[in-house]
Amino acid sequence: MCMPQMTVEQIESQIAQIKQDCQAQGLRFTALREQVYRLILLAAHPIGAYELLDLLQSASEKVVAPPTVYRSLEFLLRHGLVHQLNSSKAFFACSQPTDRHVAAFLVCRCCGEVQEFSHPSIQTMLTEVEQSTNFATQSSIIELSGVCQRCQ
């Protein structure tokens, strides 16, 4: 699924839902985590940590240290709110943040658009590979690089 550009109302609604979910799980969705998540939701493309840092610095009178941004990104990754591409190390919002799932990411080499594709068969395939090889996967990221329909 491709994550379309969200409206401000959709972003606010999603953030409110995430805050509620975090509170119910006893997690802290700090102001910085919220800012980082909001910037990722607003981004028209996958965004790198230093680009996020620059945006946070320009919006704040305080100095924002890189480790604090990385800790926020780690929280967002760990809780399935964002994904990170291995190829570019950039982050983008998960299209289904309240649903734990395995996905493949289709990355357009022309425009940089990323589509998130989730299907039960992806999980089935990974489970079969783990079982047949007696391998304990700790993380998996499936990226397909090519040309999107719009750029063809």
Structural description of this entry:
By secondary structure, this protein is of the alpha+beta class. It has two domains: 8-93, Orthogonal Bundle (Arc Repressor Mutant, subunit A), CATH 1.10.10; 103-146, Dna Ligase, domain 1. The protein is 44% helix and 14% strand. The chain has helices at residues 8-24, 31-42, 49-59, 66-78, 120-133, and strands at 82-84, 91-93, 103-108, 114-118, 142-146.
Question: Nutshell version of this structure?
Answer:
Homodimer. This protein is an alpha+beta fold and 152 residues long.
Structural descriptors:
metal-binding; 5 strands; Ferric uptake regulation protein; 5 helices; iron; single chain; transcription regulation; 2 domains; FUR; 3-stranded mixed sheet; 152 residues; two-stranded antiparallel sheet; Dna Ligase, domain 1; globular; Arc Repressor Mutant, subunit A
Topology:
Elements: H1 8-24, H2 31-42, H3 49-59, H4 66-78, E1 82-84, E2 91-93, E3 103-108, E4 114-118, H5 120-133, E5 142-146
Parallel strand pairs: 3-5
Antiparallel strand pairs: 1-2, 3-4
Subcellular location: Cytoplasm
Binding site for Zn(2+): 108, 111, 148, 151
Cofactor: Zn(2+)
- How much strand? 5-15%
Described by its quaternary structure, the protein is single chain
CATH homology group of the largest domain: Winged helix-like DNA-binding domain superfamily/Winged helix DNA-binding domain
Stretches where pLDDT falls below 50 for ≥5 residues? none
Distance between the termini: 18 Å
Number of helices: 5
CATH third-tier fold name of the largest domain: Arc Repressor Mutant, subunit A
| Rounded mean pLDDT score | 90
Structural class: alpha+beta
Specify the helix fraction band: 40-55%
Give the C-alpha Rg.
16 Å
Main CATH class of the largest domain: Mainly Alpha
User: What's the total count of β strands?
Assistant: 5
The biggest beta sheet reads:
3 strands, mixed
- N to C succession of SSEs: HHHHEEEEHE
At CATH level 2, the architecture of the largest domain is Orthogonal Bundle
User: How are the strands of the largest sheet arranged?
Assistant: 4-3-5
**Structural shape:** globular
